[in-house]
Amino acid sequence: MVQEYQSPVRVYKHPFELIMAAYVRRFPKCPLIPMFVDSEIISESQSDDGCVLVTERRCTIDIEAPRLLKRIAGVDYLYFIQKNSLNRRDRTLHIEVHNETFSNRVIVRERCSYTVHPENESWTCFEQSASLDIKSFFGFESTAEKIAMKQYASSIKKGKEIIEYYLRELEKEGVTYIPRWTSTVDSGTVTWRHQLLPPSAARAIPVNSAKDGLHCKDSSCSAELVTGSPDDKLDADYIRRYLGDLTPLQESCLIRLRQWLQETHKGKIPKDQHVLRFLRARDFNLDKAREFLCQSLTWRRQHQVDFLLDTWKRPQLLQDYYSGGWHHHDKDGRPLYILRLGQMDTKGLVRALGEEALLRQVLSINEEGLRRCEENTRVFGQPISSWTCLVDLDGLNMRHLWRPGIKALLRIIEIVEANYPETLGRLLILRAPRVFPVLWTLVSPLIDENTRKKFLVYAGNDYQGPGGLVDYIDREIIPDFLQGDCMCDIPEGGMVPKFLYRTAEELESEENRLLTDSIYKSASIYKGAPYELLIEITEASSVITWDFDVSKGDVVFNIYHSRRAPQPPRKETHGIASLGAVNPQLIDKSWVLGQDYSTVEKALMCREGESVQGSHITRWPGFYILQWRFLSSAACAASSMPRVDDVLASLQVSSHKCKIMYYTEVLASCDFRGSMTSLESCHSGFSHGRPDAAMTKAHLYPLVPSKRILFFKYELCH
Which Gene Ontology cellular-component terms appear in the entry (predicted)? Predict the structure, then answer.
């Protein structure tokens, strides 16, 4: 497996010329890097005007590895070739490194660059990327890979320290400024000179709101999505200030996942804090974190969770009887949420409001928690990405173990765990009664192991002594109902009057309505059995719009037109009951492309995790077929595409199945508010507009946009 590394942008608050003077002092050997034994120049060339200098060195490296492994490999040192290309005019240094030793067994590539800061010409930026591919190594491939990654991570940490060390050495020698290089040509003779520039005053790098999302004051700004572009890069100081101390390899995982999102979701991408939470939840396993994050972002986008705080108004019943609220912060600066669960009539709330209202309430609490973390990061000047929850169980009894209430609680926990990982910094459970172990047995299996480690449980009044509440919360903000001095305006809860209860029929009716209200639909695409959707157009110049996410596998999206109405698919019996339903095919096997039907849009290849929005102006009335088919190396033209009969046996193979979530709508041309000339599909995953109509409910996660929100999407995309 190829191991890759990508560094953040490291900024030196010194001019490029001074950094180069410090850099060359690393050669031929550097005592600050014990593993860097020696180096020798094997070639050097310079342009006629002295602008470009290319230097190749052979570097000797002493890897810290078990002596047995060195003896098996038959080497004491490793040799690498380093090529430095310095351009004095452009003020850039590009470094390329590859291994000379074991080059037929191991492939090592490294690229580094020193460039001028794009917003301050008196500063210098440094970036680094590398890859390691061990094809074979005497049966010790895994061991060699671990040793190499450990050594590389260690050398990365020292890189900036070394430059800063030699900068201090130059300062001791009185060298604090080196003029910029320029050249002039006079009468055919090249002369060199340095242009003396007035030193510019150092200024802070402006922190782009698209990068950290910490300066967005507009209420319409998404809680989790910000505009990003491939040129929007992270610098090391920003990571340390807003995201915390990460190891070099953890930084690399964050940057690579962020780059993947920028490439596949051109538009709005998650904030860095949000991406980092999912990486931490999967122990910085890039593939697992990417899958986890994409599932959550699809959920957020499908149900418009980013607009929840601005569009959902809490029912008065929740305001009166939901005994929870935000209350200052803990000693670490985390926002503090207090829930008086023992005083809450969970059965009454479920009977009066239904499960969906409680789910919205919990989601709004989590969304508010994310905002408060950002605010506290600014206030306290340190990264704060989680909050503390204090749960008071005084009054908890068997009534709280009402089965429908427990079912609702388990469902809510499952959703929160799937979409808000690593947001709970600490959970303080106070005054736990004897019935608490029963409740804990029911809910603990759904809680992530890392989250369970953050739970602290106090029985009776144990929280008042040493090691109790005062260790985590300042005494002056402990609520009065916990024998503190701070008045707390959190509702006391109480019993919900029974006359407010809704009948079982009303709750069931709402549940059934929520099941069918989502405007998005799901579909599976099999190898050889595409998913096809028929749209009949009666008026030319109508606009077909689409919006879909590829949640699994890669697909090809096509749009066809036919003047003939496709015949209803025939039900065919294949005698294999386990295969389940196969997608009905609208394009008859006897149809010929170009005669019976035609392609009206260029085929669009869509990769897993991508989100696609687009539209098509119809030129003729008739029947339009939207088709999603499995993308593989053997894919061919639609006219020769293998049909269902040929691939039934392959349907049981999970790798031959793709999944999409889609929404389509047909608009009259007079109603379409997007551009009528630029109607390409737009890969803008997670990009969305603010709803201009009331949101409708959806089953389980009741946050689906009104249909007309797609208008705003097309305006953004086009």
Answer: cytosol
